[in-house]
Design goal:
The chain has a domain of 138 residues: NADH:ubiquinone oxidoreductase Nqo5 subunit (Beta Polymerase, domain 2). The chain is 21% helix and 27% strand. It has four helices and nine strands, in the order H-E-E-H-E-E-E-E-H-E-E-E-H. A hairpin with a 2-residue loop joins strand 1 and strand 2. The longest helix has 14 residues.
Length: 205
Amino acid sequence: MDEALKELGELIVTALDNEVTGYDIAHGELTLHTRSSCILKVLKHLRDDSHCQFKILIDLCGADYPERPRRFDIVYHLLSLTLNQRVRVKLETDEETPVPTARDIFSAADWYERECWDLYGVMFSDHPDLRRILTDYGFQGFPLRKDFPLTGYVEVRYSEEHKRVVYEPVKLVQEFRSFDFMSPWEGAQYILPGDEKAADENGQS
């Protein structure tokens, strides 16, 4: 399997030597690396070339690495039913640089790119309808960024008084508890299985 993927990777790199910056194989999967400005040419080649025939866009997703200058990975997963092969294409971008939309090459990219914008805030240039798709229209921030708080900024509830859904700042009211990691409420008052081994190693009886 890896030999076939390596052969395919070399074939693609040879055909797109200026567009594909490299490839790697891990866990039986081929990953191609490219630049944002080249993504459309790479996707079109993977779709139309007779050695590839990756005609189905299975998924388009993002990943956030905030310690990097170009913090976002945009990842495309393609499938070739004809050759029974899969390939992954990755590129890096930042918060300000838009990625060209792949909608004209794979129509399925339409909603995938909306989802990526909604959750990561990555812009896709020339997308005809780039708006939120999973969160509410008034949602603030991008919930899959690593710097987005786990609690979010607002909570939503139905107000019987106003007879509508209302947004309120998140309030986490909880009394302080000290956990001992044995029993979450009152603490274990017995020797847990395995503790006797630690006592024996310390010379205790």
